[in-house]
Amino acid sequence: MMADDLLKKWLNDELTGAEKEAFSKQSDYAINRNIIDKAQYFKASEFSKVDSFETFRKAYQNKPSEKRITWIKPLLRVAAVLLISFSLYFTVFNKNTIEEQTLLSEKTTLSLPDLSQVTLNADSKITYDANNWDSKRSLNLEGEAYFKVAKGKTFDVHTNNGVVTVVGTEFNVKARKNYFEVVCYEGIVKVVSGTVIRQLTAGQTYRILNNTFSEDTIRDIVPQWTINKSRFKRIPIAEVIEELERQYNIKVDFSNVDTTRLFSGGFVHNNLENALISITKPMNLAFEISSSNQVLINGKTN
User: Fold this and answer.
1) Residue 243 sits in a domain of what CATH number?
2) Cα(284)–Cα(292) distance, integer angstroms
């Protein structure tokens, strides 16, 4: 029998009497015997002893979790700060909002990023995002403005009263309290205010005054206020006087005057006395200029 077979059977304690005698006579028997005898003295260290797998699992999970929480909380705080910072940057710092505004008795003409032109009437304001202008030509208007829009993408004017949409044209938008008017001077203009939707061509007007809608036509080729005149057609005198106050930076008081009476006519922007005569005389009213910025309009008693 081969020596390896005897060794295997000896380790398994399967040798017969004759095989044991033969195995004990081998030259390496003493070495094999010595290895086996010493191996039985080895045992696992008590420091590595684990009572059970469940105990080991709990010990493993609980101890590292304390360290993990210690590190995660600061990281979460840092991540939150970074998120807020990026949000502020992209919503505030990366948004280039342009605001243009006129004072009382002031007008101005300015160019938009696409070279469209806007002329602002007195006490008016526009705002727009210059960074997004190439992809979205859109602005907000408070007051009155005359637009000469360059050809290109859709151009939107947003007001509290409605939205005016064009591609390339000339038009005027007046968005005052209880007064929304759009006049088309060239091209085509779409106007949406609530449920009232109209498409205007040159010479057509769209007006909502005190919640009443009306349409009309004009012959002017530019808004009269851009050449320092204001013109009205069947407008309550209260609205006319408000425009007078804007153009001259004055305060007008009424005495014994029905401010709902309709006025047709106009006034100039460079002579207050002439402007007051143009308004009061056709309506049989009188006026007094008490100071540089105070005017009284009263009804005649004769």
Assistant:
1) 3.55.50.30
2) 24
For residue 223, the tally of other CB atoms under 10 A from its CB is 23
Write out the two tokens for 25. 């006579």
Q: In terms of residue numbers, what domain contains 270? A: 228-299
- The rounded distance, in Å, linking the Cα atoms of 200 and 184 is 6
For 145, other C-beta atoms within 10 Å of its C-beta total 26
Among residues 279, 278, 274, the alpha carbon closest in space to that of 254 is found at: 279
Token output for 248: 């001259």
Alpha carbon of residue 218 to chain centroid: 37
- SS3 state of residue 258: coil
pTM of the model: 0.69
Cβ neighbours of residue 202 closer than 8 Å, sequence gap 6 or more: 184, 185, 186, 187
Whether residue 190 has pLDDT greater than 90: yes
**Domain membership flag for residue 275:** yes
The amino acid at residue 15 is: L
* Token duo for residue 214: 């009306």
The rounded distance, in Å, linking the Cα atoms of 61 and 55 is 10
pLDDT at 45 over 50: no
CA 259 from centroid of its chain's CA atoms: 40
